[in-house]
Structures are given as structure tokens and as C-alpha cells.
Amino acid sequence: MTAIISYSGRNRLSGADRIASPPDERATAFATFFAYGGRYTMTGNKITHHVEVASVENWVKTDLVRTIKLEGDRMTLITPPLSVGGRMQTTELVWERLH
């Protein structure tokens, strides 16, 4: 599986070279976008992502557990409480099947 999450309203870097862009711009870009991928397993209403590659290196070789909620054509993944920007929060990601 692969997850790519981007915040809305992200700013463009001032230059084409992402490495040579100013550090504050790169920090904001990093803080507002993340991705990870790897195998997964499902048990009951839980899915565990076994992270093999990630934009946040600390996640590599870890397991990210999510609760799954199915309602009709919607599937929701719910994180456990996590620290985001120094605040504890739960995040829900909703997919809906289109016909």
C-alpha cells in the first residue's frame, strides 16, 4: 500500500531547485506533506501498515495501526490519538466508492 497525504493551501518553493530553496520554505514543505508505503495486514476492524519507505525516516520499520469503519460505499481509516504540531488529535481519512 502507499499513502500520499498533502495539506491544502501549500505554498510553492521560490525556486525550481528543492535542495537550494530557503530552509524555511523546505521546512514548511516537509511539514505539510508526507508519504509512506509497505505491506499491510488486516485483523477484524484494524489495518496495520508495515512501513518500508517513508518521507519521515522514523516511521520506516514501524507499524502504523488504523481502525477501519465501513458504511455503505464509504471506508474510513481512523488513527489513534497522535501528536500533530504538539497537539494530540485523531485523524479520519474517508474514501467513497463512486458508481
Could you describe the 3D structure shown?
This protein has one domain (2-96). The chain has 1 helix and 8 strands. The protein has one helix at residues 23-31; strands spanning 2-6, 33-43, 46-54, 63-71, 74-78, 82-84, 87-89, 92-96.
Brief overview:
By secondary structure, the chain is mostly beta strands. The chain is built from one helix and eight strands; from the N terminus they run βαβββββββ.
Features:
single chain; 99 residues; mainly beta; 6-stranded antiparallel beta sheet; two-stranded antiparallel sheet; 1 helix; 8 strands; globular
Number of strands: 8
Strand order of the largest sheet: 1-2-3-4-5-8
How many structurally independent domains? Answer: 1
Instruction: Return the average pLDDT rounded to an integer.
Output: 95
Question: Topology, please?
Answer:
Layout: E1 2-6, H1 23-31, E2 33-43, E3 46-54, E4 63-71, E5 74-78, E6 82-84, E7 87-89, E8 92-96
Antiparallel strand pairs: 1-2, 2-3, 3-4, 4-5, 5-8, 6-7
